[in-house]
């Protein structure tokens, strides 16, 4: 009963828009430990009647927006997101109560979403939840539903009203851009280790996704606004030219801004560097939140790479052979004077395996090699010719041993 009284008071503060951050945290914890039916039917019901008569911003939301917001706040409360479970919490006849709860919780937590008259683009990096060790290519829709994409499949992706927004043909997913929208709706494509996939965005931008990568992008870009997507992993972008709508790729701390160009971007969270290699056109790199009118941005010309070190917070720009960075698009693995520890990481991503070096001899060995259709066994046999070692395979794990190990 004491908790219910406290919930009642805190919900009233939500309606009045007078709740503090500390009280909001307390409310979230109480919701987590309370009977949601009691909250809905006994506590929130009376506050909803007051709230819907007021002039709070969440009144502008559509039901579909509120359902999405609701799912997100409940995922956070019950830690469902981290467990990779998808549940439906909102019966259609109870949407109005839970829409208000979700909208006000998120509103007062400082999370603002889009309404029909006023849209704002995300300005901070978006966390992309993804398990690259999964063997399935998956597509997460705007409502939280996760669908599996087969390599050779054919399918159509539609809105709830039946309008076509994208179609799959084999190893490619293409968005139509046919449906006019006045708010951003996001999909997220996840590519596991050992796989690659092609994506064509609604503006015609082509994205080649490398293994262990994820990209979050709008189903349709908005007229008069930037075209912004969020990448984790590695991808090659062939950006459709549109001077009125700059294209921006966010990779953790960095933004890469272009109008129409081709470049390779690599950002794996476990790597120290965020690497951008420009093949054609021009790009501007700047830290998230930086003012482009100052000298805080760096521009690349074709044939240059920019390495942003996340630890030292520094950027290095240099001339490079772009083919070394883009050969993966055509199925090649190219290593030029590369240490084995770097090669090992790329092999693990490419073949969806783990490699453990128990010999203690290979990590800093330098190799130059090119592979295409070779198996992981054939590649290791090639390395053995330079530095003798033995290895055993246990399922998806390879263990490198000393030459004379038993």
Spatial gap, N to C terminus: 68 Å
Low-confidence spans: 51-100, 106-128
User: Under CATH, the topology of the largest domain is which?
Assistant: Jelly Rolls
Tell me how many strands there are: 23
Per CATH, which architecture of the largest domain? Answer: Sandwich
Give the mean pLDDT.
78
Q: How many domains make up the 3D coordinates? A: 3
Secondary structural class? alpha+beta
Count of helical stretches: 8
- Work out the radius of gyration: 25 Å
User: Which strand-content bin applies to the residues?
Assistant: 25-35%
Molecular structure report:
The protein is an alpha+beta fold and 406 residues long. It folds into three domains: 2-108, no CATH class; 137-156 and 166-324, Jelly Rolls (Sandwich), CATH 2.60.120.1440; 332-401, Phage tail protein beta-alpha-beta fold. It is 24% helix and 31% strand. It contains eight helices and 23 strands. Helix 1 (2-16) packs across helix 2. The radius of gyration is 25 Å and the shape is globular. Keywords: Membrane, Transmembrane, Transmembrane helix. Residues 194-283 form the FecR protein domain. This is FecR domain-containing protein.
């Amino acid at each position: 009963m004491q908790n219910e009284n406290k919930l009642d008071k805190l919900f009233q503060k939500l309606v009045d828009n007078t709740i503090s951050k500390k009280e909001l945290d307390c409310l979230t914890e109480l919701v987590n430990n309370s009977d949601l039916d009691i909250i809905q039917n006994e506590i929130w019901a009376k506050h909803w009647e007051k709230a819907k008569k007021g002039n709070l911003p969440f009144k502008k939301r559509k039901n579909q927006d509120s359902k999405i917001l609701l799912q997100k706040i409940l995922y956070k409360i019950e830690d469902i997101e981290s467990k990779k479970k998808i549940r439906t919490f909102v019966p259609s006849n109870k949407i109005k109560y839970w829409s208000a709860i979700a909208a006000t919780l998120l509103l007062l937590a400082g999370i603002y979403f889009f309404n029909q008259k006023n849209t704002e683009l995300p300005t901070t990096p978006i966390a992309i939840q993804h398990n690259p060790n999964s063997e399935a290519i998956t597509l997460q829709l705007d409502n939280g539903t996760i669908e599996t994409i087969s390599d050779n499949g054919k399918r159509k992706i539609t809105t709830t009203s039946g309008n076509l927004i994208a179609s799959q043909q084999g190893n490619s997913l293409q968005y139509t851009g046919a449906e006019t929208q006045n708010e951003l709706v996001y999909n997220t494509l996840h590519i596991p280790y050992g796989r690659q996939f092609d994506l064509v965005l609604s503006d015609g931008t082509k994205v080649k996704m490398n293994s262990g990568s994820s990209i979050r992008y709008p189903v349709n870009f908005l007229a008069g606004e930037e075209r912004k997507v969020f990448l984790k992993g590695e991808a090659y972008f062939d950006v459709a030219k549109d001077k009125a709508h700059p294209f921006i790729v966010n990779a953790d701390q960095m933004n890469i801004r272009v109008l129409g160009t081709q470049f390779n971007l690599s950002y794996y969270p476990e790597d120290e560097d965020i690497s951008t290699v420009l093949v054609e056109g021009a790009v501007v790199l700047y830290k998230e939140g930086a003012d482009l009118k100052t000298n805080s941005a760096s521009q690349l010309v074709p044939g240059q790479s920019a390495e942003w070190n996340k630890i030292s917070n520094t950027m290095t720009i240099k001339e490079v052979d772009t083919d070394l960075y883009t050969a993966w698009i055509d199925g090649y693995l190219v290593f030029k004077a590369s240490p084995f520890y770097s090669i090992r990481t790329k092999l693990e991503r490419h073949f969806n395996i783990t490699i453990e070096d128990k010999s203690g001899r290979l990590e800093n060995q330098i190799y130059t090699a090119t592979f295409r259709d070779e198996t992981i066994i054939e590649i290791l046999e090639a390395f053995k010719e330079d530095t003798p070692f033995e290895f055993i395979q246990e399922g998806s794990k390879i263990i490198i041993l000393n030459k004379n190990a038993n």
